């Protein structure tokens, strides 16, 4: 963890002016499953805007989201006077017609960041991750209220490319003070065809599971049939009367030739009750 911390501090020195920086996907060290079907975790713009000098006053960072489209390569997130846009997810059709504001948070001063060493402590981990990361698409509560006007950060669409931008707002003027570039397109995950069955060990598909279970029960039925045949053959042997053998041959001859031309005995087996079937087999055994 301390090596990571050093790397992050080094990153702070590197970053320099905010203008030519882009929002970045959260490091794999923090979030393993990212992006998901509906969320994208990003690193917060720490030490970006206040890297050269500490900012005086109150600042907030706004996060804007835009669904990727060639016509919005350089979409603006402020009006002509420099006031940041307050367009919502709903107004922009989830970022498809214009950027929407998905999150706002206070700017944590670069000199005052919590140590990542404490992230191993379960009680502090979530708070520390919230300091470093923001998750787009994490809160769908605003969708249930059609008249909701506030900040709305509902789930993103699967298999869709999005771009992100951070904006620094001077809260005493309410104007945009600085901003990052739009990020490179980041694609949410795609729903895979078998993802519902992926939890099964060995990732077997539905068809494979059916075949496996049929094959698994087949030997059982064969064994059952064989055991029954042997049992009945003992019963027949015990009887001195040979009439049963004759009966089954009569049944066999009564079957029309067209049905049982190749396998006449099978045809009679299929038509007769289960006991007759056993008798046919037993007669063959006796022969
Ligand atoms: C993008 O917009 C910014 C400010 O709105 C402008 O300075 C820059 O030249 C634009 N870039 C392109 C490629 O249009
Ligand atoms: C989700 O959004 C609603 C409305 O914006 C807010 O009141 C609530 O605190 C948010 N929940 C979380 C867990 O952030
Ligand atoms: C933010 O706005 C206040 C009030 O207008 C101003 O005094 C301050 O210099 C601004 N911050 C920066 C970094 O320009």
From TrEMBL:
<feature type="signal peptide">
    <location>
        <begin position="1"/>
        <end position="18"/>
    </location>
</feature>
<keyword id="KW-0732">Signal</keyword>
<dbReference type="GO" id="GO:0005886">
    <property type="term" value="C:plasma membrane"/>
</dbReference>
<dbReference type="InterPro" id="IPR024831">
    <property type="entry name" value="Uroplakin-3"/>
</dbReference>
<dbReference type="GO" id="GO:0015840">
    <property type="term" value="P:urea transport"/>
</dbReference>
<feature type="region of interest" description="Disordered">
    <location>
        <begin position="243"/>
        <end position="287"/>
    </location>
</feature>
<feature type="transmembrane region" description="Helical">
    <location>
        <begin position="208"/>
        <end position="232"/>
    </location>
</feature>
<protein>
    <submittedName>
        <fullName>Uroplakin-3a isoform X1</fullName>
    </submittedName>
</protein>
<keyword id="KW-0812">Transmembrane</keyword>
<dbReference type="GO" id="GO:0006833">
    <property type="term" value="P:water transport"/>
</dbReference>
<dbReference type="InterPro" id="IPR024825">
    <property type="entry name" value="Uroplakin-3a"/>
</dbReference>
<keyword id="KW-1133">Transmembrane helix</keyword>
<keyword id="KW-0472">Membrane</keyword>
């Amino acid at each position: 963890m301390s090596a990571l911390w050093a790397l992050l501090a080094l990153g702070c020195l590197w970053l320099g002016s905010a203008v030519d920086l882009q929002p970045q996907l959260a490091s794999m060290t923090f979030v393993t499953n990212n992006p998901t079907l509906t969320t994208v975790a990003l690193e917060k713009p720490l030490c970006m805007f206040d890297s050269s000098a500490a900012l005086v006053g109150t600042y907030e960072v706004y996060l804007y989201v835009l669904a990727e489209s060639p016509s919005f390569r350089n979409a603006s997130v402020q009006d002509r006077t420099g006031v940041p846009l307050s367009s919502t997810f709903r107004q922009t059709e989830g970022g498809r017609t214009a950027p929407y504001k998905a999150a706002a948070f206070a700017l944590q001063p670069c000199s005052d960041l919590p140590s990542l060493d404490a992230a191993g402590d379960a009680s502090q981990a979530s708070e520390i991750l919230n300091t470093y990361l923001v998750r787009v698409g994490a809160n769908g509560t605003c969708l249930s209220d059609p008249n909701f006007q506030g900040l709305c950060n509902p789930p993103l669409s699967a298999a869709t490319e999005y771009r992100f931008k951070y904006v620094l707002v001077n809260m005493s003027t309410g104007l945009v003070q600085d901003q990052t570039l739009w990020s490179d397109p980041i694609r949410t995950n795609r729903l895979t065809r078998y993802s519902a069955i992926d939890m099964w060990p060995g990732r077997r598909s539905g068809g494979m599971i059916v075949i496996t279970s049929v094959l698994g029960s087949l030997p059982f039925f064969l064994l059952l049939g064989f055991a029954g045949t042997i049992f009945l053959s003992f019963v027949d042997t015990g009887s001195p009367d040979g009439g049963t053998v004759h009966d089954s041959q009569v049944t066999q001859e009564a079957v029309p030739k067209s049905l049982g031309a190749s396998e006449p005995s099978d045809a009679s087996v299929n038509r007769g009750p289960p006991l007759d079937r056993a008798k046919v087999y037993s007669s063959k055994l006796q022969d």
